[in-house]
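Tokens as discussed.
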């Protein structure tokens, strides 16, 4: 297992290196001054130009320039935003928690609703129930996320007035950031309005989280259904039924844990699409996350923000994909068997 983890770590490092190389090449192709693309300084002084040339080795070969670029980015120097004149790394760290919070809530919604529906679709003897569930998942998979987000905003936010349609929390609440996750920070706050702030933050996250959860929800239902149908025909399940175990015990203790393994693998494969959907959702609901921040940088041609946002999103996707693969291998006995056989 140690050799496997080392190989996964090497894969992460190699993929990240290729990502930085691509960003280095793309940065040199931006239709602006190279120093501006690297640092975000619009009118640098002569001293600043000298410092930039020294930091990024602009007078050296391309290989030395790439190594200098890599060193600067890995040290946290992502330049400054041409729009706000603030360090990009500070802006990035400020918006990352909101995106993580939205993604986690959406993922939990997809799993909590998708797993039971997938099990129900596989075990139900009624064709109407099966077809209804599969029709819902097919519809959810086919609906464009921007149309769904706008429709939910119109129905539940504008016409019914049940839920807020923009932002993360009402600006009247002053919550001191502790973890960066607003739902947690409101609970940790010592303000007399902490409970009201938590409820308000919860109401704000419902619409964007539900919109973002539709895609993984449909995948979870379909994969769970297919996995459960195959697992319920296995010999050990038949043996458990022969011993007189109740169906709920068989499903919860034996079938569902094994059915979750392919679900986990497919969730890892769709992280890229999930991140793309998250960017659209954040823009629709004015959610202060990486997606909305990056799209704003693209509109304003803020090249350092574009670089920082792309690097952050891509590195997170690479890391989470490899992490899910490791967890999948640890959970799946067949994968561990192949792993040990290969060693």
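Sequence:
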């Amino acid at each position: 297992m140690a050799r496997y983890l080392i190989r996964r770590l090497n894969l992460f490092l190699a993929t990240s290196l290729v990502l930085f190389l691509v960003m280095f090449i793309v940065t040199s192709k931006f239709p602006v001054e190279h120093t501006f693309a690297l640092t975000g300084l619009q009118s640098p002084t002569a001293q600043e130009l000298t410092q930039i040339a020294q930091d990024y080795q602009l007078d050296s070969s391309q290989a030395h320039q790439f190594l200098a670029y890599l060193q600067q980015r890995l040290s946290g120097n992502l330049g400054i935003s041409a729009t706000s004149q603030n360090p990009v790394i500070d802006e990035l760290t400020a918006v990352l928690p909101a995106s993580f919070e939205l993604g986690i809530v959406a993922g939990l919604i997809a799993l909590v609703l998708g797993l039971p529906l997938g099990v129900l679709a596989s075990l139900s003897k009624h064709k109407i129930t099966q077809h209804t569930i599969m029709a819902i998942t097919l519809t959810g998979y086919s609906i464009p996320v921007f149309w769904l987000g706008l429709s939910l905003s119109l129905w539940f936010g504008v016409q019914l007035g049940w839920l807020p349609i923009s932002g993360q929390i009402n600006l009247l609440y002053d919550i001191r950031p502790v973890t960066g996750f607003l739902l947690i920070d409101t609970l940790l706050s010592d303000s007399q309005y902490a409970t009201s702030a938590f409820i308000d933050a919860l109401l704000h996250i419902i619409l964007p989280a539900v919109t973002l959860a539709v895609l993984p929800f449909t995948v979870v239902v379909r994969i769970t259904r297919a996995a459960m149908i195959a697992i319920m025909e296995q010999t050990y399940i038949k043996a458990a039924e022969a011993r007189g175990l109740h169906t709920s015990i068989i499903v919860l203790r034996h079938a569902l844990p094994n059915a979750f393994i392919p679900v986990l693998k497919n969730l890892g494969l769709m992280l890229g699409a999930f991140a793309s959907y998250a960017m659209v959702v954040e823009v629709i609901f004015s959610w202060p996350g990486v997606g909305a921040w990056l799209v704003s940088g693209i509109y304003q041609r803020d090249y350092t923000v574009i670089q920082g946002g792309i690097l952050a999103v891509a590195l997170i996707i690479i890391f989470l994909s490899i992490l899910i693969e490791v967890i999948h291998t640890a959970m799946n006995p067949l994968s561990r068997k192949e792993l040990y056989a290969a060693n």
